[in-house]
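Throughout our pipeline, every protein is held as a single compact record rather than as scattered files. The remainder of this section carries one protein's record, kept here as part of the documentation.

===
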Amino acid sequence: MSIFSEKLKEYMELKNEKVYTLSKMCDISRASMYKIVQGTRHPSRVEMVYQIADALGLSPFEKKKLVESYQITMIGKNVYEEQNHIIHLIDLFRERKQFQVEWNPAENHIEEKKYLYGKQSVNREIREMIKREAGKEKGKICMICQPNNEFLQQMLIAYCENKEVEIYHIICMESKESGEENSYNLKNLTQISTILISDCKYEAYYYYDDVQSHFYNLNLLPCAIITESEIIQYTPDYEYAIYDHKKERVEVFHGIFQQFMKTARKMFRMEHGLEKAEEWIDDHKIETILSYDDAGYFLVKQKGKKLAQNLKLFVSEQKVSEYSLSKWGAANSNIDEPEKIKRYRIHRELFPVPENFMMISECKGSIIIIFEKEKQSWGVLEIYEKSLKRSMYQFISNLDKSFLVY
């Protein structure tokens, strides 16, 4: 028995449906349907699962649960959870968020040290610090914290976007052995995606530790934001903090941050413009392309000289328009493609690939993400951190196991 066959049996009993009748309605042989129900065989494509669901007359909720059980059976629960995180991340690339704020003068402090209680007070102090640093000709914000404060992300974008403010962020990542669930690290990447696709000068670095132990035991104030002349230390839940702008104390924390930077590694490389993507494509042997339509393939073929023999192309729509080609910088002359490549169509209901998004993998597991931030303004993201890179490579390697239509 499998998770899918158990769920299928449950719904067959609920709908009082027999194997023979179901096989007739789905145009599947009785022997094959019996094996599917018993869990010794599985549908080859998710489209068959939808066919079975419709034959059983399942509600939208029941159909979703049956498809979910099929995907878990095909790729495993841990991989399925990671897959959902990545799909959510990709969905966030659809649209840039902009935050409007009032640029009234930032509050100044008379006392050197101040104790803060409550999330509202802590967030207000963080906002004023960011505002003061953003008002400088060349500001610098250093952060040692987890990216779990949406308000902090919003304030960084609101006050620092398109300004000469450098933002350095050190994040604690869970160290997992190969094959273990990686949802926490993927969640970290998802949480910084808003600032990642903004026009802030933002760089993220990582180190490995037991996150639960590091942030939620006796380390009372493990998070910190440091500017040129200010420091705020706070708890992970943002309920308690200490603010200080005494020179000696700020210098101590600058030293602590530099020590962290010596052991931390860069999480990703963020570039702008399709030219940077073309350089990456030219230097790697491309194995897989995930894009909305064939235009992604034409761009890679036009710029790359090292396409793998078993190149796979996953698309949501196979038709490609002149607009789509020009958007990706692909030549119209390449529209008549004589070569045969492995083309797979993704079920749009399960995974709606954004039109402004493309993911490319290299044979050795390197990953690059290309996305349109605004019209003809491109972001190019190359993942460095090994667990994120492994999860994304595994994600595109498993696309043909749970997302495809006939």
About this structure: The mean pLDDT is 86. The chain is about 45% helix and 20% strand. Residues 247-263 form the longest helix (17 residues).
